[in-house]
Design brief:
Number of strands: 12
Strand order of the largest sheet: 2-1-3-4-5-6
CATH superfamily of the largest domain: Glycogen Phosphorylase B
Distance between the termini: 18 Å
Number of domains: 2
Order of helices and strands: EHEHHHEHEHEHEHEHEHEHEHEHHEHHH
Oligomer: single chain
CATH class of the largest domain: Alpha Beta
Number of helices: 17
Strand content: 15-25%
Largest sheet: 6 strands, parallel
Mean pLDDT: 91
Structural class: alpha/beta
CATH topology of the largest domain: Rossmann fold
Helix content: 40-55%
């Protein structure tokens, strides 16, 4: 009997956990289930059979100032990860996004002279900032799986084997939610206005955004009596979200699981969300939305000096125009949020224009083509051929 292929996967936050889980499923299908996994991940990777070395929440941190208090724990988790790789001796180490931690793993393996192939899934956004980081990625990684075609030249010019596999949001099911089933399941009348609220997957961003979202939702409810808020969440912040929304003046449903989230998208009239991968899911669902974000002021000062692009939302970046409102830092206020959301909830040109823009963004992302996770699995298997 052929020995199963062994893969060590590391995802540092929920968006990477989702990507890695789809890749695990595709690898299992491409190898007739002759595959085994170890590593670090969250609830989606757990659904594919991974027992994580430690909670993914230990790595879910963003921002210069925010990382410092967590550094001792991060270094401890790095040592734990390296020991596990050495014991497992995988056919490949696959790091997924979160280059702050996964890059440390790649550098440590390189420093130790490891001959295990290193594959990184999701290109660091060197096209947005720190273009010189591409050279470091090329030094420590053997193959890079990119989500967007425009990313390839940044890494290929440094000799890195880079493959565009497309974005798995296309196969996520985000656009196939069932609004009727959702309302029946939760006992919500068909005429009750629903607002999707997505405060993020990291503790810091949830703590900063939820109070603003709460006040914005209250202002929206004043114009839409009976409004209810739908708050999909993930393991890393579920407890915080549940406690923080328990006393909202707007009735709130805290939701768990992909199907609940996508059904909520189908049922909602509009959404306000933390900037991130979830915005692509909202685009896939054709749900008009506003993105918002707040960071530590010192982190923001540094980021504004470094960033080279005019937008933070991926749909806007794909379209090269402001299709989705972005309310960042000082613009992230209850007043601005509620005004933008109310405009999108109304039947009219603003709402229809954004829906058309979201459709165009998905076409540019490759909607209608082959499965991105299957392309990613093929790129991984090609890398380890004898």
């Amino acid at each position: 009997m052929t020995q199963p292929l062994r893969f060590f996967l590391i995802a540092g936050e929920p968006s990477g956990d989702f990507l890695a889980s789809r890749l695990m499923s595709a690898l299992r299908g491409a190898t007739d289930a002759q595959v085994s996994f170890e590593g670090v991940g969250g609830e989606n990777m757990a659904s594919q059979g991974l027992q994580s070395l430690f909670p993914i929440a230990d790595l879910s941190v963003m921002g210069l100032v925010e990382v410092l208090p967590r550094l001792p724990l991060i270094l401890k988790r790095l040592d734990q990860t390296m020991s596990a790789i050495e014991r497992f001796q995988p056919h490949a180490v696959i790091t997924v996004d979160s280059w702050g931690f996964t890059g440390r793993v790649a550098r440590a393996l390189h420093k130790r002279g490891s001959r295990i192939p290193r594959i990184h899934y999701v290109a660091p956004m060197v096209w947005a900032w720190k273009e010189n980081r591409a050279k470091g990625v090329a030094r420590y990684v053997n193959r890079l799986l990119a989500l967007f075609p425009h990313e390839l030249p940044y890494f290929q010019r440094h000799g890195l084997d880079t493959v565009c596999v497309g974005h798995p949001v296309i196969e996520s099911g985000a656009g196939a939610g069932d609004a009727v089933a959702f309302r029946e399941r939760h006992g919500i009348g068909r005429d009750v206005p629903l607002l999707a609220v997505l405060p993020g997957s990291r503790m810091g961003e949830v703590k900063r955004l939820l109070p603003v979202f709460e006040r914005a939702a209250a202002r929206i409810a004043a114009k839409h009596p009976g409004l209810m808020a739908l708050v999909p969440t993930v393991d890393t912040v579920a407890g915080l979200v549940a406690s923080a929304t328990a006393n909202w003046s707007v009735p709130t449903f805290v939701l768990r699981g992909m199907q609940e989230k996508y059904d909520a998208f189908a049922a909602a009239r509009a959404a306000m969300a933390a900037s991130g991968t979830v915005a692509l899911e909202l685009a896939m669902a054709r749900l008009p939305h506003v993105v918002a974000y707040k960071l530590n002021p010192i982190t923001v000062m540094a980021a504004r000096r470094l960033f080279k692009i005019p937008y933070v939302n991926l749909s806007n970046i794909l379209l090269e125009r402001l299709a989705v409102p972005e309310l960042i830092q000082e613009d992230c206020t209850p007043e601005r949020l509620s005004d933008e959301v109310l405009a999108l909830m109304a039947d009219g040109e603003r709402r229809q224009r954004q829906i058309e823009d979201l459709d165009e963004a998905m076409r540019r992302l490759g909607q209608g083509g082959a499965s991105p996770s299957q392309r990613a699995a093929q790129a991984v298997l090609e890398m380890i051929k004898p």
